[in-house]
Write a structure and sequence with these properties.
heterodimer, A: about 1100 residues, alpha/beta, 10-stranded mixed beta sheet, elongated, B: about 900 residues, 7-stranded mixed beta sheet, 34 helices, globular, binds iron/sulfur cluster
């Protein structure tokens, strides 16, 4: 490429012309807008685009389904049926799905394996670790281990292990999602170290001296404390710490975390002066020269490992044909640079649509920018205020720069300010509140202000738009009490029905409680359950539900019938086989004493025993399905508590089995029932997901109008409810500077290089489990720290925005109040400006209480609020009503007696065929067909070859062609050494001669399918067969069946008898098809002759 | 002959030809999909039929053909270098598509680089001996039809217009027509439902003949959208509906692969419609991949476990059981548990020992450097031999035959490859290549009296009173199209016909609309929200219905039903569904006491520290485990924390048996490192699995450090190690006290010290402090019968600390305050006696429930006297108890 071309290309790439960026606030109808924008282009009268020219990217598969559905409906409504039908030709899906499809389509052009498999996140983590381990040299591993141990990196006191792999993985992930090169990581380590050094005080020259000073101080203090012997527990604990420290120091080294700990020890009051020297000496750790070299060494080693890992992981996956989520985008970006791909997509793509644009990660943004070069027309819709998936890679700082770039590079921006969701009072207050709160974070008011589309309804007047719950007991119990109170007087909280638009009383399903973590949601669910209130939430513990227990016990029993615990669990969950549980136990004991005498309820296991012989045929997921059916768990689930959840969970268990088989696919491992059980067990192990440890055995989450919805703020995005309760409002900020963090050296967006000037900063925390240290405070006050705090604060405000905008009719702020009446509102207080928090909660529980929003220094906006003081004592628990246990009744029938639907003429055991009687009418023989040894040959293959020849040996064929056909058929069956083609021809000729003699002029029909429907006492059945040869004569039809039986004619009578039912079946089918059968022949091709059968009684 | 042929007629279909009244039949009028028609043509033309799937060999040969071109810089070169088989497969499938258009191998003007590349590959001089696949077979049929003079069939009726068929098919049809076969197209003439019914309104809308204004949807039951939470629920409703429809002429459209309906029909007592499924995970197909995995080092215990636990595999009976138990105890091949298991094989053991040696104990290849082809062929041979034995036992077993075919294909692929060694990743890919296609099997037979069904909407070509559309959810995505627009246009210009993607989608949509028209009385669309956990999306036809009708919310509500609606009486317009009232079934009730009435007395003669912990922790736990004998292996390898401890124990034991503790510290460390490596491969091989190195390194370092610290501690305390892992059984009360002392050492003054090895420390410190440590007192008691001056302490492997009650024998000990061991033991004895008495009297206390009382209280021990007894914290008893589903503790929240 020459300079001019480069300049042109750069210009083209930085051109935002044709790009419309829509800022769509919550509830502003963005999907509607998006659909219509696309439809508009598809139906444009003059240059309507082709449907395959559409690239539409959504954030979730659910959103994809919704967008596709709406698009199809709009197209059909416009009469564009062909376009609606062809919608699957568009690139429509999540960004990963779109990329995967692109890669599959252009794999060969992109130079990747065409058999690429998308790796789920969980598996990707495992593979990343696998490849990293394989690639790290022993030296680097030792370096990592030594340096991490030196600073007790990510020290886990329980396992007593440090952890360097987590930051290495995080750096790798971040590097990949920002398309950073492995080679550049070294420089990032340097920059990280430089930043970190600035937090430390000037280094001392003599580290050994510092250690000696500490050792002296320790010795002195230990002696003094022993002498003091003040009998205080804290003093004796401190003494233990000092002794331990001295011991370690004398042995060679004391971890820095211990230095830090020593600098803070607090013995009893009288002992305090005696440890003063230790406090001072220990506090010098951060000027120790080794302290800083060790941090730097660890940081370097970690970046080095990440660099090695990046290359290794790429090779690892390439070799296996696997791509993870980041690769999909990365490879797609590379594919888009391939000229052949560019030519094809340049011709094809016409419109790019991106939904939920605010959740875009940097690499995704690069992809969209690249796609825009092809389509030249794009619509990116999002709400910056709802960018809450930073942990998943979204980068809110990018959003601001993109907006600026669009405006300055020929693109357009637009705001959707109308709120269709919430009542006007809510819209107004929330709009004012967040306009102000987000101003501090640089968001212009134009992007935040919203106007209500809904009218104020007089029927809702009695319900203030806001509620404030002041909770003075344990949060989940008080929250539960509040929900109970809401539901106990449904008429006091009226809501607008979304379907009908009518005002009605509250139902449980109208209420959603939002909390910060899944754990809080689970605790709240338990508290609600105690009050008899059902809830819907994402809950783990699937394997420990009754259905999970039964299924794993059943699988355990199938693998090992001697698994007595599995048997006992199955029995226990089947009502102890109808016995009292104590009687059951007594029987177990007796049975053990009598060496396993079969228990009285062994029939419970019969369906499983019956399944056992089939196990070799079944895949693990099929075994699971069969167990569900064999034990009729669907009906059983209806009898357990909370039957809807039970039944739905069976499907979640099937999902887990499918996930297991999927995993086996991409890991290319065998799958077995034993493996499935192991997978079930693994799914119960909590692993880190987002902010909390969580197992993967998720229960089904269903929609239930009779249950309150419990959700995290994150999961609530995109959803709405009439009444929303916001919990966890006392949650503190979490981020700090000692984590792997993406950094950017510029604050502008460059479409030519969207990912340029990005780097990764990592400051390893050097003090083990000690968190409270001066270095942390200095980090927080540094520019980096302030940036991180600001970023955290912004994200917390955005998450609150998501929470505040979920309610349609009534929004409740649930705050914990201390014994002294102080509300704990750390999170809510993030809604602030330079003068402090913007929201003032009402102080009293009066009918005119208001929630006040400070709009400016002098103006306060007041919104009515219903205030409740809540504690555990407010509500009495009431038992939940047991739902009606009506279920479908099985049809009383003896299915076991039902024969198969299809009647195979060769199945002589079939009850229909076994009724036929026949006799031998005549035997005619001619020359045998010669053959040599057929040793090692399957006789079935001989039969098939003979049939094949006779089926094709028509009268019109020339001798040469007949021979050619015979030869190739024999060759294909590997029978050329055993049979001469001429022998086949002769055998066929013999039959021809016989027929010609017996039924001269007969018309030959070869391989004629017959079908007949037969009545049976169990219902209709169908007979299917193929008549080898049907001779149509003037008197009627002759049925001929070719057999390759090689025995002599003496054996034919007996042999023919075996085939008689088959011939009778054909005869029957012909008869009911209106034909007249006059003869039935068995043709012994090899033996040379025919046997004619007569039917004594038909089927 | 008059075949009825359609693109969607390979599976179950209902056409005017095969939809027969009972007592009627038809001759020479088969219903065929493309594959069946091709097979019949081959038969009649004397073309040998391809019985076996030879795609593996086919692709391998194609890859060989491509290799020289790929090396010379083609658009697919990079992909080929990375994945020759995958690339060859992709190119071959494109070539097959091209052959289907009627291509003869010659150049196609302006068709672009992809077609040019195929032309180039096809024109390579070396003769191409590819096993024939569908396209080649059809091409051969087309060629051989030239030899034919007379009509092959009298007539063919096509279910769709000829344009829907590929160019090559059209040439075949043309040839048939030339030889006298008459071709026509099926035209349905559905009357549909009465126009004023909901169904009639929808049918009219879909055929574009809506009245204006259209009649409202009233919810008359003729058209219902059945929404359900999951497909299992949907299947139950559907089965009940099918049962209720009785003898009314009905048909089910069975779209999708979900088997839920088939199972539901069976459990509801409705004659099932049969079930076919395809899977590569059938148990008998796993032997080859597992055996090949085990040809590499390190041998993954999970794979060994899988092979041993297959319902039908090379190992059976006691041999299988013993090996499994050994592996679960100690996950590795060749360790102590493994050897002990082999020693206990039933006699004559030689055959079993050879089997074990062959399948597991041969040294494996390095996974990166790879195994030699010979070594792999030997493994496959072993699998083949075993499969052949199975076939001899049951000659008709289709899966064993399929497994054998996989072996053959694997060998063919392997031997076609050049290069001496094959690495593990490649082996896995080759296995996937030959066996990844899945195996199709009939899992359930269709039974007499079953309701008619079709495999897809396009196969319903006759009217039916009732049509139930099972799994009416989004199903479009899989339809792929081979040609890009430019390529397609060039192919068309060259007379090579295939439908465009748009045409194919439009034809498919038309077939779906036709299925709606087939219903004359009722149409039920069944749309579960999830199918085996996968969220479903709205069916495109549903979107079309909504868009064409624009129903009001009230109309939508009238035609939508949930499963719950069908459980209410009088679900509009449908015959009454059979329902039953179920009695709620309680989950095992959490009772704080079980009253037992058993004649036998409890087995209290043999006790161990563990059994006593159970007895004093939760008598029900003790009863279930020790008296009722409930136990489970569940084929799970030990959890990591247990494995860590086990390996630690074994390391110390082995080091002791080598006399290493008396070696200098450096030498000791060296021995510990060596021993640790050996133990990992023999007894902790799970840690050798890929991805475990990080964990393994840390554990290895921790355990070696722990062993060294132990040596130092022994030295500092001037202790001489006498025994490690020494079993004991001493008389105790009426029976015995049994167990194992981890370490027994002697001080320089002759005192004996028992050192119990633990992984952690905090828990045991707390127990010592709270006087509820049972182990050390039990061990001390047992040794005191032999020696007067005994003390016992813990050594934590993770913190590398020795701790316990103060003792004269040890000068360097972290002293943990608490009562002396003999005092605690007396408490244990007192409480155990009362607990046993209670059990003997039939009162089994359960301690871990919300309603439970502390055991001492349950045993009615006065408060004042409780300090003389031993108390276990209930949460300690429950922590590792596996009986919570039986005692009811697990159901606290569910109930
Ligand atoms: S789970 Fe707890 S309460 Fe239940 S039997 Fe086990 S130890 Fe006893």
């Amino acid at each position: 490429m020459n300079t001019l071309e480069i300049a042109a290309e750069t210009k083209a790439r930085s051109d935002a012309e044709g790009l419309l960026l829509i800022a769509a606030s919550a509830g502003s109808g963005k999907t509607y807008r998006l659909t219509h924008e696309v439809a508009e282009r598809l139906r444009a009268a003059d240059d309507a685009m082709s449907i395959e020219g559409l690239v539409a990217v959504t954030y979730t598969t659910k959103a994809r389904a919704e967008l596709e559905s709406r698009l199809r409906q709009v197209l059909v409504q416009e009469g564009l049926f062909a376009r609606a039908d062809a919608l699957p030709t568009a690139y429509l899906g999540t960004v990963h799905a779109v990329c995967l499809r692109l890669l599959q389509e252009f794999a060969l052009e992109a130079g990747i394996s065409p058999d690429i498999d998308g790796l789920p996140q969980e598996a990707a983590r495992h593979l990343l670790q696998e490849s990293l381990e394989a690639a790290l040299s022993p030296e680097l591993r030792t370096r990592l281990d030594d340096t991490a141990r030196a600073i007790e990196l990510n020290w886990d006191g329980r396992t007593r292990r440090h952890d360097w792999i987590t930051p290495v993985e995080q750096i790798m992930t971040l590097a990949r999602s920002n398309r950073l090169n492995a080679e550049d990581l070294r420089d990032m380590a340097r920059r990280s170290n430089e930043g970190l050094q600035q937090l430390l005080r000037p280094v001392a020259a003599d580290g050994v001296g510092l250690e000696r000073a500490l050792a002296d101080a320790l010795e002195e203090s230990i002696g003094a404390l022993v002498n003091l012997n003040d009998g205080q527990k804290n003093t004796s604990d401190v003494l233990g710490v000092l002794r331990d420290a001295l011991d370690q120091l004398q042995r060679g080294r004391l971890p820095w975390g211990q230095w830090c700990k020593l600098s803070k020890v607090k013995p009893g009051k009288r002992a305090m002066p005696l440890v003063e020297a230790v406090l001072l000496a220990a506090a010098e750790y951060d000027i120790h020269p080794r302290f800083r070299t060790e941090i730097c060494a660890c940081c370097d080693a970690i970046f080095d490992a990440a660099s090695v890992g990046l290359r290794a992981y790429a090779d690892w996956k390439a070799q296996r044909g696997l791509v993870d989520y980041v690769d999909m985008i990365d490879l797609a970006l590379s594919a888009l640079d391939v000229p052949d791909v560019q030519r094809e997509l340049g011709r094809r793509l016409e419109l790019l649509v991106v939904d939920e644009f605010q959740d875009t990660s940097p690499i995704q943004l690069a992809l969209f920018a690249r796609f825009h070069q092809f389509t030249r027309r794009s619509i990116w819709v999002g709400d910056w205020k709802q960018c809450i998936f930073e942990y998943a890679g979204a980068d809110p700082t990018l959003m601001d720069s993109v907006t600026r770039w669009v405006n300055s590079h020929g693109g357009k921006t637009e705001v959707l300010p109308r709120n269709f969701r919430s009542r006007p009072e809510l819209v107004e207050s929330i709009s004012l509140l967040f306009t102000r709160a987000l101003e501090r974070h640089g968001q212009s008011s134009g992007e935040v202000v919203a106007h209500a589309n809904r009218e104020a309804l007089p029927q809702l007047e009695s319900l203030p738009p806001f509620g404030v719950w002041k909770m003075n007991s344990k949060t989940e119990r008080a929250l539960a009490a509040g929900v109970a109170r809401l539901l106990s007087e449904p008429g006091a909280t009226t809501v607008v029905d979304r379907e009908t638009g009518l005002v009605r009383s509250l139902r449980p399903g109208d209420v959603a409680v939002l909390v910060a973590t899944n754990k809080e949601a689970e605790d709240l669910a338990a508290a609600l359950a105690e009050l008899g209130i059902a809830s819907v939430l994402a809950r783990t513990g699937l394997m420990r539900t009754p259905e999970g227990t039964v299924l794993s016990a059943a699988l355990g029993y199938l693998i090992d019938a001697a698994d007595t615990l599995a048997t006992a669990e199955l029995e226990a969950l089947h009502g102890f086989g109808g016995m009292e549980q104590e009687a059951w136990l007594a029987e177990k004991i007796t049975s053990k004493a009598t060496n396993g005498a079969p228990s009285a309820h062994a029939e419970l296991l019969l369906p499983l025993d019956a399944l056992r012989p089939e196990l070799p045929r079944l895949a693990p997921s099929e075994v699971l399905d069969r167990v569900i059916a064999a034990l009729d768990l669907v009906t059983k689930a209806r009898r357990w508590p909370n039957p809807d959840q039970r039944l739905a969970n069976l499907d979640a268990l099937r999902a887990l089995a499918a996930a297991y088989e999927d995993r086996s696919t991409y890991l290319r491992e065998a799958a077995s029932v034993g493996g499935l059980l192991r997978y079930f067990a693994e799914s119960q192990i909590a692993i880190r997901q987002q902010d909390e440890e969580r197992a993967r055995d998720e229960q089904h989450v269903s929609i239930n109008p009779d249950a309150v919805v419990l959700s995290t703020y994150h999961k609530a995005k995109g959803l709405e409810w009439p009444v929303v309760v916001l919990g966890s409002l006392d949650r503190e900020g979490r981020r700090h500077a000692f984590s792997v963090t993406p950094e950017m050296d510029r604050d502008t967006f460059d479409a030519a290089d969207p990912l340029g000037q990005r780097w990764i900063r990592y400051w390893p925390w050097p003090l083990g489990q000690q968190k409270d240290a001066a270095i942390r405070e200095r980090a927080a006050e540094s520019e980096v720290g302030r940036r991180i705090t600001e970023r955290d604060s912004r994200e917390r405000v955005r998450l609150l925005y998501v929470g505040f905008t979920r309610a349609r009719d009534h929004l409740i702020l649930a705050v914990t109040v201390t014994g002294k009446g102080v509300a704990k509102t750390a999170w809510l207080d993030e809604l602030s400006d330079a003068d402090g928090p913007l929201l003032t909660l009402p102080s009293k529980q009066t009918s005119d209480a208001t929630l006040d929003v400070r709009v400016s220094v002098s103006t306060v906006h007041r919104a009515l609020a219903r205030v409740w003081n809540l504690g555990e004592e407010c509500v009495e628990s009431k038992p939940r009503e047991d739902p009606a246990r009506i279920w479908f009744a099985p049809t009383p029938s003896a299915l076991g007696a039902h024969p198969g639907y299809v009647i195979k003429p060769s199945d002589t055991n079939d009850e229909i065929l076994s009724g036929a009687e026949f006799a031998i009418a005549s035997i005619t023989s001619w020359n045998r067909m010669p053959f040599t040894s057929t040793k090692d040959k399957r006789w079935d293959d001989v039969g098939t070859a003979i049939h094949a020849f006779l089926a094709s040996d028509t009268f019109e064929l020339s001798g040469a062609r007949r021979e050619l056909i015979a030869r190739r058929i024999l060759a294909a069956a590997e029978l050329e050494a055993s049979f001469d083609p001429a022998a086949l021809l002769a055998a066929s000729d013999n039959l021809r001669r016989f027929v010609e003699r017996r039924w001269p002029g007969a018309r030959w029909h070869r391989e004629v399918p017959v079908i007949a429907t037969v009545k049976s006492e169990h219902g209709a059945r169908q007979l299917h067969g193929v008549v080898d040869l049907l001779l149509e004569t003037e008197m009627g039809d002759v049925i001929v069946d070719h057999k390759s039986f090689p025995g002599s004619s003496q054996q034919w009578e007996q042999e023919a008898t075996k085939y008689a039912p088959q011939l009778c079946a054909y005869a029957h089918a012909l008869k009911v098809a209106g034909r007249n059968v006059i003869a039935r022949l068995v043709h012994f091709t090899i033996g040379g002759g025919v046997v004619e059968l007569v039917e004594r009684s038909a089927i | 002959m008059h075949p009825f042929v359609g693109l969607e007629l390979s599976g179950a279909s209902l056409t005017p030809v095969n939809d027969l009244e009972p007592g009627t039949g038809r001759l020479g009028a088969p219903v065929w999909g493309p594959e069946e028609l091709l097979r019949d043509l081959e038969l009649r033309l004397g073309i040998p039929q391809v019985e076996q799937d030879s795609s593996a060999v086919r692709v391998t040969r194609w890859a060989e053909r491509i290799a020289p071109l790929a090396a010379a810089g083609r658009y697919y070169s990079s992909s080929f270098k990375l994945d020759p088989i995958g690339t060859a497969r992709a190119l071959l499938s494109l070539r097959d598509e091209l052959v289907l258009t009627g291509w003869d191998g010659g150049p196609v003007a302006d068709a672009g680089y992809r077609v040019d590349a195929l032309v180039e590959i096809e024109s390579v001089e070396t003769p191409l001996t590819l096993p024939r696949d569908f396209a080649d077979r059809l091409a051969q049929v087309q060629r051989e039809l030239r030899e034919v003079r007379s009509p092959i069939y009298d007539q063919i009726t096509l279910a769709e217009e000829q344009a829907a068929w590929s160019g090559l098919w059209q040439r075949v049809f043309e040839a048939l027509r030339r030889h006298g076969t008459h071709l026509d197209m099926f035209e349905e003439n559905f009357q549909g439902a009465p126009p004023d019914s909901d169904l009639g309104v929808i049918q009219a809308a879909l055929s574009g003949k809506s009245a204006s204004p259209r009649p409202p949807l009233r919810g008359d039951g003729t058209f219902l959208m059945l929404e359900s939470e999951t497909s299992l629920e949907a299947a139950s409703v559907s089965a009940a509906i099918i049962a209720a429809l009785g003898n009314e002429p009905s048909a089910v459209i069975r779209d999708g692969n979900d088997p839920a309906l088939a199972h539901a029909l069976l459990t509801q007592g409705v004659p099932p419609q049969g079930l076919h499924s395809s899977s590569r995970w059938r148990s008998a197909l796993q032997v080859l991949p597992l055996a090949l995995e085990l040809a590499f080092e390190p041998k993954d215990p999970h794979r060994v476990l899988d092979l041993l636990s297959l319902p039908r595999g090379p190992f059976r009976g006691a041999v299988r059981r013993r090996l499994l138990r050994a592996l679960v105890r100690s996950p590795g091949i060749g360790g102590r548990a493994w050897q002990e298991a082999k020693e206990r094989f039933p006699e004559p053991a030689s055959a079993a020992l050879t089997l074990v040696a062959d399948w597991f104990e041969r040294p494996g290849a390095d996974p990166i450097r790879g195994a030699t082809t010979e070594a792999l062929l030997e493994v496959v041979d072993r699998v083949r031999t075993w499969l052949s034995e199975q076939i001899a036992l049951s000659p008709d077993d289709e899966i064993t035959h399929a497994a054998l075919r996989h072996c053959t294909a694997f060998v063919a692929t392997l031997t076609e490859r050049s290069g001496a060694a094959v690495d593990l990743v490649t082996v896995r890919r080759l296995v996937e290549f030959v066996a990844g296609g899945g195996m199709h099997l009939e899992l359930q037979r269709e039974r007499a009296g079953r309701v008619d069904y079709v495999s897809s909407a396009g196969a319903l070509l006759v009217p039916r009173s009732n049509v139930l559309w099972w799994s009416f959810t989004h199903g479009y995505d899989k339809l792929t199209h081979a040609w890009r627009k430019g390529e397609h246009a060039a192919l068309l210009a060259a007379g090579l016909w295939s439908q465009s993607a748009e045409q194919r989608f439009a034809a498919r949509a038309a077939r779906m609309r036709r299925a709606v028209q087939a219903a004359t009385k009722r149409l039920l669309l069944v749309a579960p929200k999830t199918v085996a956990g996968d969220q479903t999306a709205a069916h495109p036809l549903w979107d079309e219905i909504i868009a064409r009708l624009r129903p009001l919310p009230s109309e939508l509500a009238a035609i939508t039903r949930t499963a719950a609606n069908f459980l209410e009486a009088g679900s509009t317009g449908l015959p009454e569904l059979a329902r039953q009232a179920l009695l709620p079934r309680e989950l095992p009730v959490a009772r704080p006491i079980w009253h037992l009435n058993v004649v036998d007395s409890p087995p209290v003669h043999s006790a161990s520290a563990n059994s006593l912990t159970a007895l004093l922790g939760c008598p029900l736990q003790w009863t279930l485990a020790n008296w009722a004998g409930l136990a489970s292996v569940r084929l799970a390898l030990p959890a990591m924390h247990l494995l860590n401890g086990n390996l630690g124990h074994r390391l110390i034991e082995e080091l002791h048996s080598q006399g290493a503790f008396s070696e200098p510290a450096e030498r000791f460390r060296h021995l510990a490192i060596r021993q640790m490596e050996s133990l990992l491969s023999l007894e902790g091989a799970v840690l050798l699995r890929a991805g475990k190195a990080y964990e393994r390194d840390q554990l290895q370092a921790q355990l070696v450090d722990a062993a060294c610290a132990l040596q130092r501690t022994l030295f500092e305390n001037e202790l001489e190690l006498l025994d490690a892992e020494k079993p004991f059984a001493v008389p105790w009360r009426a029976g015995e006290l049994r167990g194992r002392w981890d370490l027994v050492a002697r001080s320089n003054k002759g005192q004996l010290v028992i050192i119990d090895l633990k992984w952690g420390d905090r828990k045991y410190r707390d127990k010592l402090r709270a006087a509820n440590d049972l182990q050390l007192p039990a061990y001390t008691h047992a040794l005191r019968l032999e020696h007067a001056d005994v003390s016992a302490v813990y050594f934590s492997l993770s913190s590398r600390k020795l701790f316990g009650a103060r003792t004269e024998a040890l000068s360097k000990l972290e002293v943990v305050p608490g009562p002396p061991a003999h005092e605690t033991w007396r408490r244990v004895e007192r409480t155990a006696q009362l607990a046993e008495q209670a059990i003997a009297a039939g009162a089994i206390h359960v301690t871990g429930l919300r309603t439970s009382l502390p055991l001492l209280e349950s045993l009615e021990i006065e408060e004042a006297g409780r300090s003389r007894h031993f108390a276990v914290k209930p949460e300690d008893a429950c922590e590792y108890c596996g009986f919570d589903a039986i005692c009811g503790r697990r159901w606290g929240e569910v109930s």
